Amino acid sequence: MRLVLLGAPGSGKGTQATRLKEHLQVPHISTGDLLRAEVAAGSTLGLQAKAVMARGDLVSDDILLGMLEDRLSRPDVASGFILDGYPRNLAQADALGKLLARIGQPMDHAVQLEVDTDKLVDRLAGRAQAEGRADDNPESVRNRLNIYNDQTAPVIDFYRQHGVLKAVHGEGSMDEVFTRILEAIMVGIDVG
Fold this sequence. Notes:
Elements: E1 2-7, H1 13-24, E2 28-30, H2 31-41, H3 44-54, H4 61-72, E3 81-84, H5 90-102, E4 109-114, H6 117-131, H7 138-161, E5 165-169, H8 174-185
Helix pairs in contact: 1-8, 2-3, 2-4, 3-4, 6-7
């Protein structure tokens, strides 16, 4: 199964991706982790990314897509994968769709974890306090959420138009959300 997990910061994407990885027996691919690994390995794309980051710039969509294409060419993704953190904008969603078509692995589902903004602010503030991060005050968290919503709305529409979007209520216990995701992506399959 090939999945994209969409959701605002604090929506539980990482937690649910870990659980889905175990359940579905497919790799969880986080573009942030992928980027760090490529830089650490000193690959050609990793060195390009390192130079960009050293200038304080964002890594280009082309570099990220190249890293993703390399990762998706490995044998462990033959049965599928879970993408977390990509795509973040419409250009990335379009490029990913073209890449997956080219390699013969079309997206099965894009799962959007929907969580109320106030709940997200509370979650992120609690996480920031637990991790000792002073920069995650409610105002800065709300600003990050607004940016996310502005950039991601077109991605959500993109997957809706392609008939693969599954919106899932992301509030409740981890088990409740996990069950909702499974029910959304495995219609007719026992998720018990």
